[in-house]
Amino acid sequence: MASRSISRRWSSSESSGRVTAASLAAAHGRGIPVSTRLGDETGPSPAGPVRGREIREALRTPPGTDDARTRVLARWVGIGLVSLGDYHDAHAFLCQALDLATASGNIRAVIATELNLGDAYRYAGEAETADVLYRKALDTARSRHPELVDFALQHFGKHLMEQGDLVPARAHLREAWRLRIAKGDTGLIESTQAALDRVELLIGQAATGTAAPATGDAEATQWSKRWTS
Question: What are the residue boundaries of the structural domains of the chain, listed by start?
Answer without folding.
Answer: 1-126, 145-229
